[in-house]
C-alpha cells in the first residue's frame, strides 16, 4: 500500500475454535430435532462455546485496534466484510419471505383448483384458499383460533423499532460531533428500546400459544409466523447485545469522532433489522 503498511494479523486459533463450536451447536440442534432432549446438552455446550469464542475473538480485535495496529486498508476490509455479512442476512430473510409469498400466491390457490397446477385440488376437494389460513386442508391439523390485530402489540413494536433507529442515529451523530455524553445517553435509550421489543414479543408469543392457537403445529400460517418473527427476534436479541457492548466501550472512552467503525457496523446491523421488521409488519400482520 502506497504511503503506509498493510497489517497482517498474527496466527489465530479463533477461526478453528469457532468452526468446532458452531459444528457442535448444529450437531446438538439436529439431534434435538430428531431424537428429542438427548441433543439439548450438546447444543447448549456448543452455544456457550460459540459465545465464549466470539467474546475472546472480539476482545483481541479491540486490543489490536486500540493499539493502533490497523490502517486505512484494514478499515476498508472491515467495511467490506460487514457489507457482505449484511448482504448474506438479506438473502437469509429473502428465503423466508419467498416461502411466505410462494405459499400465499401459488400453493394455496393450486389447492383450491386455480392456476396451472389446480389439479392439486383433487387432494382436498372441499378446501377453500384463504389467508391467514385458519382451516388447513388436512383435518388432522388444527389451525389457529384467531390472528393478531396488527394495530395492538405489533404496532407498538413497530413504533419501538423505528424509534430505536432514530435514537441510534442521534447517538451516532453525537459521537461524530464529539458529544460523548449525548452519544452515551441515546445509545442507552436504544438498548432500552431493544429490550422493550424483546419483552413485548415474548408477551405476544405467550398470547399466541395460550389464547390464539397460533403454534408451530397450527398449519402453514403458524409455521411461517414463527419462522419469520422468531428469526427476526433472534436478530434483535443479537443486535441488542452488540449495542450493549458498544455502549460499554463508549463508557470506557473508546472511539473518536473519525475512528469508530465498530459503532457504525452495529448501527448498520440494527437499521437492517429494523427494515426487516417493517417488511414483517406489512406482510405477516397487516396483509
UniProtKB/TrEMBL annotation:
Alphabetical list of Pfam families matching this protein: COX3
EC primary class: translocase
UniProt-listed GO biological process terms: aerobic electron transport chain
Main location: membrane
InterPro entries linked: Cyt_c/ubiquinol_Oxase_su3, Cyt_c_oxase_su3_dom, Cyt_c_oxidase-like_su3, Cyt_c_oxidase_su3-like_sf, Cyt_c_oxidase_su3_a-hlx
Topology of this chain in the membrane: Multi-pass membrane protein
Name of the protein in question: cytochrome-c oxidase
Recorded name of the encoding gene: coxC1
Amino acid at each position: 500500500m502506497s504511503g503506509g503498511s498493510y497489517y497482517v494479523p498474527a496466527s489465530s486459533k479463533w477461526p478453528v475454535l469457532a468452526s468446532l463450536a458452531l459444528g457442535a451447536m448444529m450437531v446438538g440442534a439436529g439431534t434435538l430435532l430428531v431424537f428429542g432432549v438427548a441433543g439439548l446438552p450438546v447444543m447448549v455446550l456448543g452455544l456457550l462455546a460459540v459465545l465464549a469464542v466470539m467474546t475472546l475473538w472480539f476482545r483481541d480485535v479491540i486490543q489490536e485496534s486500540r493499539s493502533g495496529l490497523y490502517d486505512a486498508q484494514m478499515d476498508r476490509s472491515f467495511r467490506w466484510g460487514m457489507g457482505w455479512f449484511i448482504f448474506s442476512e438479506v438473502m437469509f430473510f429473502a428465503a423466508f419471505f419467498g416461502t411466505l409469498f410462494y405459499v400465499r400466491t401459488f400453493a394455496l390457490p393450486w389447492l383450491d383448483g386455480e392456476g396451472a397446477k389446480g389439479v392439486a385440488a383433487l387432494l382436498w376437494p372441499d378446501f377453500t384458499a384463504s389467508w391467514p389460513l385458519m382451516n388447513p386442508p388436512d383435518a388432522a391439523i388444527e389451525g389457529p383460533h384467531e390472528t393478531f390485530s396488527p394495530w395492538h402489540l405489533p404496532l407498538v413494536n413497530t413504533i419501538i423499532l423505528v424509534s430505536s433507529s432514530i435514537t441510534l442515529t442521534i447517538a451516532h451523530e453525537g459521537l461524530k460531533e464529539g458529544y460523548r455524553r449525548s452519544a452515551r445517553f441515546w445509545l442507552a435509550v436504544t438498548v432500552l428500546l431493544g429490550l422493550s421489543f424483546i419483552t413485548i414479543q415474548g408477551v405476544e408469543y405467550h398470547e399466541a400459544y395460550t389464547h390464539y392457537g397460533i403454534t408451530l403445529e397450527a398449519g402453514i400460517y403458524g409455521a411461517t409466523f414463527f419462522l419469520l418473527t422468531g428469526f427476526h427476534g433472534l436478530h434483535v436479541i443479537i443486535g441488542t447485545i452488540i449495542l450493549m457492548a458498544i455502549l460499554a466501550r463508549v463508557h470506557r472512552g473508546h472511539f473518536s469522532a473519525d475512528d469508530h467503525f465498530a459503532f457504525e457496523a452495529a448501527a448498520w446491523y440494527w437499521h437492517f433489522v429494523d427494515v426487516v421488521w417493517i417488511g414483517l409488519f406489512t406482510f405477516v400482520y397487516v396483509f
